[in-house]
Amino acid sequence: MNQLIPENYKQAMHRMALRVAANGEEWRKFLTASSYLYKYESYEQLLIYGFKQDVTAVASPQTWKVLGYTPKAGATAIRLPGKRIYYDVSDLDLAVGRQEIQLWHTNGVEQAVTKAVMENYNTQNLEGVSSAAAYAIMEEVNKYLSDYGDSLQQYFPERFDEGTLTMLLMASAEYTTFSRLGCADQFPEVLRTMLDDIARYNTVEQITAIVHASWHCSGVVLRQIEKVAIQEQEKKQTKDYVEQRKNRRPQRTQQRGQQPSQVEGQITMEGITIEPMVLPPEPVSKPVPAPTPQRREPTRERSNRRRPKQPKETPPKQEEAPKQEAAQRYEVRSESGNGTPFGVWDNQAKEFV
Q1: Confidence band of 21 (pLDDT split at 50, 70, 90)
Q2: CA 121 – CA 265 distance, rounded (Å)
Q3: CA-based radius of gyration for the chain
Q4: For residue 215, which of 20, 15, 9 has the smallest C-alpha distance?
Q5: What residues have CB less than 8 Å from 70, skipping those under 6 apart?
Q6: Do residues 98 and 225 lie in contact, with contact meaning Cβ atoms separated by under 8 Å?
Q7: Half-sphere exposure of 219 (CA within 13 A, CB side)
Q8: FRET label pair with 149: which of 38, 67, 258, 304, CA 20 to 30 Å apart?
């Protein structure tokens, strides 16, 4: 990691490492600041501490803008490698009408946090958040030394006192965790004096190795506690909100078998007592079937356009039977006598032939 850091930042980090390890008092101040920076890398913690010692919440300007914060006039920016700029919340102004951010805490959710830590590390009989955090730190330090203990020896070529280094790492990580949980006053005095042993290590490599180990162990525990604390606080806020809305509604007392108009008692709403107004019960009527809706015949819509006249249908003409022409000639007989014909009458010539 140090190879990727520019030379000017690397020199600033080395100066801060020697400064924080000068004595136990400076070391405790740095651990208190690092308790709020556990999401940053160990070398970033040293650089941020060089800009500002009393940090509580550090983020980029883009993040603060979303939350409604803007840098104050003359505020000093925290600059990290990669042209990254950060600000602490103390150097920002909150916009009018925006809500101030609230850092997570364990007040009111101690039992849930303790239970979660015991489940994560498969242990029992831990009382309080401080005891649960101390047990978790002890487990993480032992795990870290078992995984990276051999690599730590290269930073202590003259003498590697594993017992002293283990107690220093445990005390540093535990003090960091206790500071973030707000229970630094419960930190054991025996471990507090062990923090003074940081002055025994006077090289940059040794100090940065201890800073990295303390950051790793305390960061694992703080992330676990943070997750549980935020979940429990959200549940608690939701429950309080529901209770608050419930208390705003008027309280009514109703006995079984009574109608709402026959309720006896008082209605209390936001400190105001109102006597109930008793109304006569409504008469009970027999159920009536719903009326059947009448269907309406659809009507034709009249159109302003004139319809074209339809040609009348004429019946087909019947063929007349051909008239029989009158006989052109016929015999004329006498009605008397022996019926001898007078002759043949030509009808066209109108004469006998």
Answers
A1: very high
A2: 55
A3: 54
A4: 20
A5: 64, 92, 93, 95
A6: no
A7: 15
A8: 38
| The pLDDT of residue 252 is above 50 | yes
| CA-closest candidate to residue 24, choices 199, 200, 169 | 199
Per residue, what are the HEC states of the chain? CHHHCCHHHHHHHHHHHHHHCCCHHHHHHHHHHHCCCCCCCHHHHHHHHHHCCCCCCEECHHHHHHCCEEECCCCCCEEECCCEEEEEHHHEEECCCCCCCCCCCCCCCHHHHHHHHHHHHCCCCCCHHHHHHHHHHHHHHHHHHHHHHHHHHHHCCCCCCHHHHHHHHHHHHHHHHHHHHCCHHHCCHHHHHHHHHHHHCCCHHHHHHHHHHHHHHHHHHHHHHHHHHHHHHHHHHHHHHHHHHHHHCCECCCCCCCCHHHCCCCEEECCEEECCCCCCCCCCCCCCCCCCCCCCCCCCCCCCCCCCCCCCCCCCCCCCCCCCCCCCEEEEECCCCCCCEEEEEECCCCEEC
pTM of full prediction above 0.70? no
- Matching residue, tokens 């303790």: 114
Q: Do residues 344 and 353 touch, judged by C-beta distance below 8 A?
A: yes
Q: How far apart are CA 27 and CA 30, in angstroms?
A: 5
Residues 264-320 have pLDDT tens digits of: 445 444 444 555 555 566 665 555 454 555 555 555 555 556 666 777 767 666 666
Q: Which amino acid is at 148?
A: Y
Burial 149-169 (b: 16+ CB within 10 A, else e): eeebeebbeeeeeeeebbbbb
Q: How far apart are CA 317 and CA 58, in angstroms?
A: 110
CB atoms within 10 A of CB 353: 8
Q: What are phi and psi of 10, to 5 degrees?
A: -65, -40
Give Cβ neighbours of residue 291 (< 8 Å, ≥ 6 apart).
none
- Amino acid occupying residue 211: V
The answer to whether 209 touches 155, Cβ cutoff 8 Å, is yes
